[in-house]
Amino acid sequence: MRTSIVVAALIVAFLALPVRAASNADPVEPAFPSELQGVWDVHPWPCSASEPSDSDMRFLIEDGKRRNYEDDDTLASIEQIADAPRAWRVVSTSSLDPERAHLEARIYVLAGGTLTVADDQRTEVYVRCE
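RE: above sequence
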């Protein structure tokens, strides 16, 4: 219950922050932390990273990309916003936007073996595919 309250508070607080475009002066390409990298699928169904999947909710996080079912999100920035549970504010662009004009902010919360991803329209809970 307490984790749910913390997650909800983080989502409300950090989605309200303005989205900043990545600057050409940024010296390093942003990358997802290692604990987020890997294959994820919607909770509660178990999944295997080595087997094919029909799930359109499954995605792969590697380096600066989130590879979704039909598109890729390219990381523009990532900021850790909490230590317990571990949480980040992730700003990215979608390959569905060829102009790369629209930045999307999401909150990623890693807790208890699940990854919760929230934006201003919905919240989804995922499990890591082993």
